[in-house]
Amino acid sequence: MTYSFELPLLVLLILTAGGAIVVKDLISAVIILGSYSFFLAIVWAWLGAVDVAFVEAVVGAGLATVFFLLTLFGAAPKDTLIRRTPPPIAAVIALPVLGLLLLYAADDLPAFGDLQAPASVHVSPYYLQNSLSDTQTPNVVTAVLMDYRALDTMMETAVIFTAGIACWLILRRRAS
Amino acid sequence: MVELIQVWLSRPNFIAFVILFLWGLYITVVHHNLVKKLIGLYLVQTSVIFFLVTTSAKSGATVPVLMSEAGSVNPEMYVNPLPHVLTLTAIVVQVATLGVSLALVSAIYRKFGSLHETEILNRLE
Fold it and tell me: What is the CATH number of the domain that holds B53?
């Protein structure tokens, strides 16, 4: 009963992911990938992660799609070669084994929504109980991101700055 | 076996994570088009973030925004905020690395005139 809303979304998620890979036209694939990101944002909002859902809708669905489209406008927008070479043996053997190991390990994970899961009882109650008196911010995610872990966020902006410089260095046209 | 299937059905998010992760990884390894490889890589990244966000869920809990200013907070009323914070950073860094790899792809296209891996390798020789 809990999953009645989420299961169709998960099916849509897998269908859009498959569509983004199967479609031959690269621009269509990128647009389908954008819809995949939006479905992911809806699932996250349903799970209670509204901040992550906002960021995924803006950065994942918006900015990533724009990056893909900018690349494709300067390049060939068709996945032209129909001829498929057989996949390497290592991938065909190793990935199903990895999948079976992951599914085998599912039993040891805490059940979905478990109140006594290790992630929920160790340090996170401290932040929920004390963040309002420490930082005067009702949104706990903002309090942790911008106050307790502000140094991490600053280094994140350094990473984005480095990525911007790298893009500029790669894409500038040299005067030869 | 029936027990194992029940274990899987009680964790639908984990099953979706496994499918998306393996599919993306397979495409990243096998596909010959560079943009398709990056789409596979994007699927891998988002599926891992999806798994991390799933660990933050608590049944019957609401979004981690405190409702009343006064009194002590019951942690079981709000979902775990820490995975949200970590994945916020991860999403932004993911898109930054995606931008750099797309810049590399478009520089490769400018030089070799193709996005296909084997054609590029042929022109390198």
Answer: 1.10.287.3510
With a CB cutoff of 8 Å and minimum separation 6, the contacts of A96 are: B22
Residues on chain A touching B16 (C-beta within 8 angstroms)? 10, 13-14
- What is the least distance, in Å, from the CA of B124 to any CA of chain A? 19
Nearest Cα of chain A lies from the Cα of B112 at a distance, in angstroms, of 11
Q: Which of A170, A173, A174, A176 to mutate to test the interface with B (most CBs of B within 10 A)?
A: A170
Of A47, A51, A55, the CB nearest to B54: A47
Residue B71, in any domain of the structure: no
Digit-coded pLDDT (tens) for B26-54 = 989 888 888 889 999 999 999 999 999 98
Q: For residue B62, give the DSSP letter.
A: B
User: How many domains is chain B built from?
Assistant: 1
Which domain range does residue B91 map to?
Answer: 2-57+79-124
ipTM: 0.89
Output the six-digit token pair for A172: 């500038």
Tokens of B87: 């994945």
- pTM to 2 decimal places: 0.90
Q: Which residues of B touch A170 (CB under 8 A)?
A: 100, 103-104, 107
Q: Per-residue DSSP letters for A38-100?
A: HHHHHHHHHTT-HHHHHHIIIIIIIIHHHHHHHHHHTS--B------PPPPHHHHHHHHHHHH
* Tokens 């949200």 sit on residue: B84
